[in-house]
Design goal:
Number of helices: 6
Low-confidence stretches: none
Distance between the termini: 37 Å
Strand content: 15-25%
Order of helices and strands: HHHEEEHEHEH
CATH architecture: 3-Layer(aba) Sandwich
Largest sheet: 5 strands, mixed
Radius of gyration: 22 Å
Number of strands: 5
Length: 231
């Protein structure tokens, strides 16, 4: 069995490296252009543009639903979450997207030598946590209601399911922070990691640039390996 010839495939990352590096370069240019022209987008346009990029950065999600109703069983009324993200198995997560603001994440000054979260960040975290809470309480009734509401928008064969949904918040900038601010923000971010992920727009850019750099490295290595060896 060990001596049997086995078929070996090329590394798919190398095969598609050039296409992938070009793709991520375009996404980076798009975000940078948006950040340089904040007034050129209203809130709705901004959210839709960022959401398209999120689907590239988090490929486990295959579709999105805008302003999905969430039943508040405690207050007896419906609320609306910005977006629901749908993965390939139909499980849903929530995302809140805010236009970037220079000062909405952590304070410049310290309280007892700590940079604490600002009101906008605290409010957005609380808002999304309540949406996730109400989604869980809604359970199977919520699944039926959402599937009926969005039947025409769902990919073929996908049925929405609510099982401990997580959340994502995209807001703010961090390019001008001190190292102490970055450290304290990471403490805040890790506090909520079991429920939701908090990303700044500079986080998005760094992730996209890092992924691109890996594909560029594969491209350069592949071009070197294609050259004839001189002995």
């Amino acid at each position: 069995m060990n001596r049997r010839a086995t078929r070996r495939f090329n590394d798919p990352r190398v095969t598609f490296a050039k296409f992938e590096s070009d793709k991520y370069s375009e996404l980076i240019k798009r975000i940078e252009a948006m950040l340089a022209n904040l007034d050129g987008f209203n809130e709705r346009q901004w959210q839709e543009e960022i959401l398209r990029i999120i689907l590239f950065l988090f490929p486990k999600y295959i579709a999105t639903l805008r302003e999905a109703p969430v039943r508040d069983t405690l207050a007896g009324k419906d609320r609306a979450i910005d977006f629901l993200l749908i993965d390939a198995s139909g499980y849903i997560d929530g995302v809140e997207i805010k236009k970037p603001s220079a000062e909405c994440m952590v304070t410049k000054n310290t309280y007892r030598e700590n940079h604490v979260p600002m009101r906008e960040l605290n409010g957005t975290v609380m808002q999304l946590e309540k949406y996730l809470f109400h989604l869980n309480r809604w359970g199977q009734q919520g699944e039926k209601a959402l599937n009926k509401r969005f039947a025409s928008q769902l990919p073929p064969g996908i049925s929405l399911q609510i099982v401990n949904p997580s959340g994502m918040i995209i807001m703010g900038r961090d390019q001008d922070w001190t190292q102490d601010q970055r450290t304290d923000f990471e403490v805040i971010r890790r506090k909520y990691r079991h429920v939701l992920e908090i990303l700044t727009y500079d986080d998005l850019l760094r992730r996209l640039k890092f992924i691109r750099s890996q594909f560029l490295l594969l491209t350069s290595n592949d071009s070197i390996s294609d050259q004839p060896h001189v002995t």
